[in-house]
């Protein structure tokens, strides 16, 4: 099962977090919610500087216990930071106290010291002697909060140096006090049994001073700040992913979305960066599909459809019942065998399975089933046979192309060639007068024939291929359907042409009437004979001359008609032939340009 691209990105991000140990986090000092000082430690964790008034507001007291309680309740993993010697001040390097950097800060060291009468001997390093010396010392118990958030006790010592160092000469220097912790410096004898003190801390030089006046009873603390040590807070982390989806913020579908790696940890984790969802996009499908419904047909090929709402519709609780045009659609075709069919459902399924086994497609009607082969080399009832006749030998001559056809072959001949193997040369006639609508006369073995242009048929290309339609014939002519595939227009006496689009002149109309009216000729001849019998001999010459003039007129009119019709037909045929030749030349030029373009494209790809 393959994971989606989004899941892979999220998985990689989580692995990175595990390898790196912990996510980059934030400290309270970077939050705008409170005005805490502090810094992020390099080894992880935070130092947070708190004003002494904060616990006083909550608890009314500021004892050591209350300071620690504030750290523990206010910050994740919080505990009071304690100092017993000045060396630990190095941890405060770079801390932002959010105060004037030149000012001195009264810092609570997080330690409570007790006075006792405990005396003991301790091995102490004496600088004057440059060695460890056993001295008489007074012990001062103290307590602080350990790293395990437990109150822990310890002992600080105030020792008197000897006037003489071991194994060395004595001098007159008075005895000095030395301390295990500087916190014992300047502690007056009048100090309470338990005391706390504030250290004058200089953040610039990381040094402290311990004057006696900053020693107080722990219930009356007068320090400025104290320091909490706490864990860092997880920031919001997201990955921008290119995936068109619905954005609640934008109230539309956008091209980018965001995968959340980690949520912002309250209250001091940082928010995610401002999101950029990119451009608008077409909302993808969401929700569930509706049931299939039949769109068309009850027998044979039936089309069914179902709908699925888009993500913006899901977000706004819209359904496809009211807005099908906005939904995603899916259609499927299936075949329904009805009772009047000549085959049963089982027979259809069996035929279909056998046909599709050979990559055929079933063409079904109510009377028969036909397996259509899409590979020209295949043939047979179920396309089960394969024969490549064109590969046997070169059947088609004179540039003809071979194509397989039902176990045999067919030749598609070049212009001016015909026949089964394109061996017959098509010779053009001297005149195209007999071929209409741009047809070209060709000389075949069987005689003359018109090679019609596309859309025309008939011995003289006089028929238009197609069915009679309204207004196809012009100028009041009627359309006559010659057969299932061709028709012609029956023109009135004063129009001609395939669609009766050409109007005849008066002379052409009279000649057509005389030429085509045999009854008129017979009537005139009979009248002349009657006049010849009835009239006298003297009138015979007049009648004879009239009769001779009439026949001369008929002959002259017939010749004029022949000339007009020949000139008209030949001229029109010549124009149509030239038009057909021009179109053919243009078509060949276009095909050649397309072949050249394909050749250039193939060269570029290579």
TrEMBL record:
<dbReference type="GO" id="GO:0005509">
    <property type="term" value="F:calcium ion binding"/>
</dbReference>
<feature type="domain" description="EGF-like">
    <location>
        <begin position="425"/>
        <end position="462"/>
    </location>
</feature>
<dbReference type="Pfam" id="PF00008">
    <property type="entry name" value="EGF"/>
</dbReference>
<feature type="domain" description="EGF-like">
    <location>
        <begin position="464"/>
        <end position="501"/>
    </location>
</feature>
<protein>
    <submittedName>
        <fullName>Protocadherin Fat 1</fullName>
    </submittedName>
</protein>
<feature type="signal peptide">
    <location>
        <begin position="1"/>
        <end position="25"/>
    </location>
</feature>
<feature type="disulfide bond">
    <location>
        <begin position="452"/>
        <end position="461"/>
    </location>
</feature>
<keyword id="KW-0677">Repeat</keyword>
<keyword id="KW-0732">Signal</keyword>
<keyword id="KW-1015">Disulfide bond</keyword>
<keyword id="KW-0245">EGF-like domain</keyword>
<keyword id="KW-0472">Membrane</keyword>
<feature type="transmembrane region" description="Helical">
    <location>
        <begin position="520"/>
        <end position="550"/>
    </location>
</feature>
<dbReference type="InterPro" id="IPR051022">
    <property type="entry name" value="Notch_Cell-Fate_Det"/>
</dbReference>
<dbReference type="InterPro" id="IPR000152">
    <property type="entry name" value="EGF-type_Asp/Asn_hydroxyl_site"/>
</dbReference>
<feature type="domain" description="EGF-like">
    <location>
        <begin position="386"/>
        <end position="423"/>
    </location>
</feature>
<feature type="compositionally biased region" description="Basic and acidic residues">
    <location>
        <begin position="583"/>
        <end position="592"/>
    </location>
</feature>
<feature type="disulfide bond">
    <location>
        <begin position="491"/>
        <end position="500"/>
    </location>
</feature>
<feature type="compositionally biased region" description="Low complexity">
    <location>
        <begin position="593"/>
        <end position="606"/>
    </location>
</feature>
<dbReference type="GO" id="GO:0016020">
    <property type="term" value="C:membrane"/>
</dbReference>
<keyword id="KW-0812">Transmembrane</keyword>
<feature type="region of interest" description="Disordered">
    <location>
        <begin position="583"/>
        <end position="606"/>
    </location>
</feature>
<dbReference type="InterPro" id="IPR001881">
    <property type="entry name" value="EGF-like_Ca-bd_dom"/>
</dbReference>
<feature type="disulfide bond">
    <location>
        <begin position="413"/>
        <end position="422"/>
    </location>
</feature>
<dbReference type="InterPro" id="IPR000742">
    <property type="entry name" value="EGF"/>
</dbReference>
<keyword id="KW-1133">Transmembrane helix</keyword>
């Amino acid at each position: 099962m393959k994971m989606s691209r989004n899941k892979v990105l999220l998985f990689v991000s989580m692995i990175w977090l595990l390898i790196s140990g912990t996510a980059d986090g934030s400290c309270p000092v970077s939050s705008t919610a409170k005005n805490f000082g502090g810094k992020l430690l390099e080894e992880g964790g935070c130092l947070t500087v708190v004003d002494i008034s904060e616990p006083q507001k909550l608890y009314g007291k500021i004892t050591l216990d209350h300071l620690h309680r504030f750290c523990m309740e206010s910050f994740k993993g919080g505990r009071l930071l304690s100092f017993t010697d000045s060396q630990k001040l190095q941890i405060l390097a770079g801390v932002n106290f959010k105060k004037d950097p030149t000012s001195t800060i009264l810092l609570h060291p997080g330690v409570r010291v007790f006075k006792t009468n405990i005396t003991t001997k301790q091995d102490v390093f004496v600088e004057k002697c440059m060695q460890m010396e056993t001295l008489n010392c007074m012990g001062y118990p103290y307590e602080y909060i350990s790293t395990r958030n437990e109150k822990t006790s310890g002992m600080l010592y105030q020792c008197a140096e000897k006037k003489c160092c071991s194994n060395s000469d004595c001098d007159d220097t008075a005895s000095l006090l030395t301390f295990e912790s500087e916190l014992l410096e300047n502690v007056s004898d009048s100090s309470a049994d338990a005391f706390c003190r504030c250290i004058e801390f200089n953040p610039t030089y990381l040094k402290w001073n311990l004057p006696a006046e900053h020693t107080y009873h722990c219930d009356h603390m007068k320090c400025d700040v104290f320091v909490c040590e706490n864990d860092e807070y997880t920031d919001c982390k997201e990955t921008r992913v290119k995936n068109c989806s619905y954005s609640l913020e934008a109230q539309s579908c956008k091209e980018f979305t965001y995968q959340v790696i980690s949520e912002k940890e309250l209250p001091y984790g940082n928010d995610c960066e401002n999101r950029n969802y990119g451009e608008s996009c077409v909302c993808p499908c969401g929700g569930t599909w509706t049931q299939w419904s039949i769109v068309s047909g009850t027998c044979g090929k039936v089309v069914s459809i179902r709908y699925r709402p888009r993500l913006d519709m899901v977000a706004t609780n819209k359904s496809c019942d009211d807005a099908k045009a906005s939904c995603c659609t899916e259609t499927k075709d299936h075949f329904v065998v009805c009772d009047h069919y000549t085959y049963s459902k089982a027979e259809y399924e069996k035929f279909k399975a056998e046909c599709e086994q050979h990559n055929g497609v079933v063409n079904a009607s109510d009377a028969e089933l036909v397996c259509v082969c899409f590979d020209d080399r295949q043939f047979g009832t179920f396309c089960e046979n394969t024969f490549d006749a064109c590969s046997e030998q070169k059947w088609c001559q004179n540039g003809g192309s071979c194509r397989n056809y039902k176990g045999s072959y067919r030749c598609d001949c070049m212009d001016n060639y015909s026949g089964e193997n394109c061996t017959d040369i098509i010779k053009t006639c001297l005149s195209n007068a007999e071929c209409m609508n741009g047809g070209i006369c060709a000389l075949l073995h069987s005689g003359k024939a018109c090679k019609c242009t596309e859309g025309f048929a008939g011995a003289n290309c006089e028929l238009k291929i197609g069915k009679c339609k309204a207004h196809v014939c012009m100028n009041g002519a009627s359309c006559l359907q010659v057969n299932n595939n061709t028709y012609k227009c029956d023109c009135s006496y004063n129009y001609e042409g395939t669609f009766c689009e050409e109007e005849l002149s008066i002379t052409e109309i009279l000649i057509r009437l005389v030429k085509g009216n045999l009854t008129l000729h017979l009537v005139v001849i009979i009248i002349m004979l009657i006049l010849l019998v009835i009239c006298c001999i003297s009138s015979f010459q007049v009648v004879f001359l009239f009769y001779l003039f009439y026949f001369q007129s008929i002959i002259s009119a017939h010749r004029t008609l022949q000339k007009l019709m020949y000139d008209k037909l030949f001229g029109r045929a010549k124009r149509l032939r030239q038009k057909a030749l021009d179109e053919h030349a243009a078509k060949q030029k276009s095909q050649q340009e397309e072949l050249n373009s394909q050749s250039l494209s193939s060269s570029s790809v290579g």
